[in-house]
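Render this sequence as a predicted structure.
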Amino acid sequence: MQNIEELDSPPVVGETYLVPCMFGRIYLLSSAQSKPPDWWPVLRPSHQDSIYTAQTRSKWKDGEFTEETYCEYDSKAPHHYHVDPRFASAELYTAWEVENKDWHNVIDIQGDIRWSEMVCLREMPTQRLFTGFGRQFVDDHKGKKIKCGRCPHRGVLLNSVPVHDGIITCPNHGLRFDAESGVCVTE
């Protein structure tokens, strides 16, 4: 049985693979809903994105409190995984998510990885750019290169992601890379 993380090309729809799964609650970011805890196929590694999450704090300035919006790394922010849509049931996704190519569902971590035999249900859909991080996210990654087959943002393996029109799109947050040079070309 082939391990999905050891492939050099996209998995074949209908074939069975060894897939990392995580037990946890899925958060559907497009609808602010969640699914009950269960075992879900995941893209590794887990990560947290606090550096791109806007927060607000009160600050004493010129004799009064003012509200300040800021972004900074928070080492205490919880980690999460993204669902691997190649192996997730179609019922997981709303019609809006399918129509808008928003496959950005996350799982809170409630245990350890379990490897399961799963059938590939579909090709990796192209993830649109996750805009919740703002312009800084794009500016921070434009021009960076894929290293060791991994996205420079959070290290997701891109070896088994299909190439469309000369572009590899990271399934986690939608960064786009030139397939030949490996350079991030997201605008």
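Summary. Residues 19 and 116 are 5 Å apart (CA to CA). The helical segments are 95-99, 135-141.
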